[in-house]
Amino acid sequence: MSLQDKVILITGASSGIGKATAQRLYKEGARIVVNYHSDDSAANALVESFGPDRAIAVRADAANISDIDRLVRTTVDKFGRIDVVVANAGLMLMRDVEDTTEDDFGQMFDINVKGPYFLAQKAVPHMPPGSRIIFISTGVCHYSSVPAKYLLYAATKGAIEQMTRVMAKGLAAKGIIVNAVAPGPTATELFFKGKPESVVNAIKGWSPFNRLGQPEEVANTIKFLASDESSWVVGQTVLVNGGIMV
């Protein structure tokens, strides 16, 4: 298996794309650290399905630096190193420039930018050459007709894409490869929340395949970027969006 015995830390791994990624990488032989914020039962059920010898659940706020430090230390105490970081945890508040509060701005940049930045910082000393850091962006950064309410979210993910490019250069000397994945609309619980069927159907129509992506399809791309097969893919943002060009 392509990720046999690799130690993979995934934030926001108890649901959605994070959970699908954990399950996909586990199938490749990896040892998984399931970070979660509040859903103990979902995280523990996932770890139980993997087995305690190959997985642990760590409750930590992925936007809080002391929690991030504890998450990394717990991973290293259990498995001895970190081979792959998947900075998946995120927040999406629908805000344009007129209705964004300072608190909104702080929350979004804390979880979507500060968290991944310092997770990488804390993890790097424990990552051997050949390790991977994988950030999560969004297709919103690549669409020309983005609704105004995506402004704040797009700003945070634009920061992630710049971070990916520049960090990839900085960590190349250590043999650590950095990339990002930018999913399009994906059928997660978070995506469906608050959306009437008419809106969901309209979004499906953005793709020539007239459907949403599945979390497993995003996880397959993350699996590629986590593996040795992606050794010459560096500093890139890979769009996983079913051909959406809006």
From TrEMBL:
<dbReference type="InterPro" id="IPR036291">
    <property type="entry name" value="NAD(P)-bd_dom_sf"/>
</dbReference>
<keyword id="KW-0560">Oxidoreductase</keyword>
<comment type="similarity">
    <text>Belongs to the short-chain dehydrogenases/reductases (SDR) family.</text>
</comment>
<dbReference type="InterPro" id="IPR020904">
    <property type="entry name" value="Sc_DH/Rdtase_CS"/>
</dbReference>
<dbReference type="Pfam" id="PF13561">
    <property type="entry name" value="adh_short_C2"/>
</dbReference>
<protein>
    <submittedName>
        <fullName>Predicted protein</fullName>
    </submittedName>
</protein>
<keyword id="KW-0521">NADP</keyword>
<dbReference type="InterPro" id="IPR002347">
    <property type="entry name" value="SDR_fam"/>
</dbReference>
<dbReference type="GO" id="GO:0016614">
    <property type="term" value="F:oxidoreductase activity, acting on CH-OH group of donors"/>
</dbReference>
